[in-house]
Amino acid sequence: MKNKIDQYTDTDDEKLFALIEQGDEGAFTRAYERYHKLLSEKVLMDLEKIAPVKFEYNEDKKEVIVKMK
């Protein structure tokens, strides 16, 4: 899998998303790798605003810990 997406390492976002629109799975995988953490953090911050919970992300274990506020 890694070799399949290495070709997109230096591809700028505009080109990457154009490739995704064309159905390029490797481009989608690269975009996911670039942005999944940012998107996850944004979703968790938004959830904290509307729910009585606090989220913590453990990078080493790749897990989200949910605590009541």
Report on the structure:
The chain has a two-stranded antiparallel ribbon. 58% of the residues lie in helices and 17% in strands. Helix 2 packs across helix 3. A hairpin with a 4-residue loop joins strand 1 and strand 2. It has 69 residues and is of the alpha+beta class.
Question: Gist?
Answer:
The chain is α+β, with helices and mostly antiparallel strands and 69 residues long.
Straight-line N-to-C gap: 40 Å
> What is the percent of helical residues?
55-70%
Describe the biggest sheet? 2 strands, antiparallel
Mean pLDDT: 88
Q: Major sheet: order of its strands?
A: 1-2
Proportion of residues in β-strands: 15-25%
What is the number of beta strands?
A: 2
One letter per element, helices H and strands E, the order comes to HHHEE
Rg measurement, Å: 16 Å
Shape: elongated
Oligomer: single chain
Number of helices: 3
Global structural class:
alpha+beta
Low-confidence stretches: none
Keyword list:
69 residues, 2 strands, 58% helix, alpha+beta, elongated, two-stranded antiparallel sheet
Secondary structure layout:
Layout: H1 2-6, H2 13-21, H3 25-50, E1 53-58, E2 63-68
Antiparallel strand pairs: 1-2
Helix pairs in contact: 2-3
